[in-house]
Amino acid sequence: MALRLARWIIAATLAASGVWIAIAPRADQPLLDTLERAFPAIRAAYIDDFTRAVITAGLARGDASEVARIRRQAREAKRWWLAAAFLVFGFSVVVSLPRRSRTTRAGSPRPADRARPAGEDPRAGR
Q1: What is the rounded distance in angstroms from the CA atom of residue 15 to the CA atom of residue 35?
Q2: Closest CA to 52 of 63, 37, 67
Q3: What is the pTM assigned to this prediction?
């Protein structure tokens, strides 16, 4: 049950972040920033080669405000794609929830509420 709740919370967080990216791409995006720090290749999804070169030059000069401005512009240009990716990933987390098994594994005892009467033939219902 806790795993299911955790997946729903993760899915809701991803969906909320995706909506926030679509609504306000220039605002702070803590989830996207965290993912970019953990996986720098994520930036390649929305920053082209020229912009990447400008960012690298800005970092070499130590101009952090210019780099932040360029990243915000790149996010704004690709905000719908980023939002869609977050929403699809959130949806996939929910869809991948394991379903409750309706049958028991071979050799395992049946639950008490599904036990057959003592005299009943197990093959009679087939």
Answers
A1: 15
A2: 67
A3: 0.56
